[in-house]
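Support request from a user on the community tier.

User writes: "When I paste my structure tokens into the form, the page sometimes reloads and wipes my input. The last time it worked, I copied everything first. Here is what I submitted, just in case something in the input itself triggers the reload:"
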């Protein structure tokens, strides 16, 4: 199906509004999204205080966006798993644990990147 061609398919503007609604819902209901946003704000504040160059800003902003996106994907995976398996099932738990692990691995790598970027900026 070509997006926008089917009468029941939302317009681009409406799809964009659904995305904003999803982000707001996640921020209101999910603790980990709030933690990631606070971490991103701290990185931006530190970047402003240190005076990062353009490339360093690009790296920091990209890392913040990727971590928040990964956490949103993890949240959506957990919601779908809860929908299809409301009672405990080992495979449901496995899917949720692996999804959370993916975010954790990304956060560890982003922390290392952040340390490298900020250490480099401080040394300069």
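"...and here is what came back when it finally went through:"
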């Amino acid at each position: 199906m070509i997006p926008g061609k089917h009468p029941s398919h939302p317009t681009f503007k409406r799809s964009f509004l659904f995305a904003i609604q999803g982000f707001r819902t996640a921020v209101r209901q999910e603790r980990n999204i709030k933690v990631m946003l606070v971490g991103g704000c701290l990185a931006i504040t530190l970047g402003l205080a240190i005076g990062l160059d353009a490339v360093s800003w690009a790296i920091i902003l990209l890392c913040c966006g990727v971590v928040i996106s990964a956490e949103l994907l993890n949240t959506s995976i957990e919601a779908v798993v809860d929908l299809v398996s409301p009672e405990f099932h080992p495979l449901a738990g496995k899917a949720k644990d692996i999804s959370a692990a993916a975010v954790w691995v990304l956060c560890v790598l982003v922390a290392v990147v952040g340390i490298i970027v900020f250490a480099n900026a401080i040394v300069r």
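Agent notes: The reload is a front-end session timeout and is unrelated to the input. The chain has one domain: 31-123. The chain has a mean pLDDT of 93. Escalated to web team.
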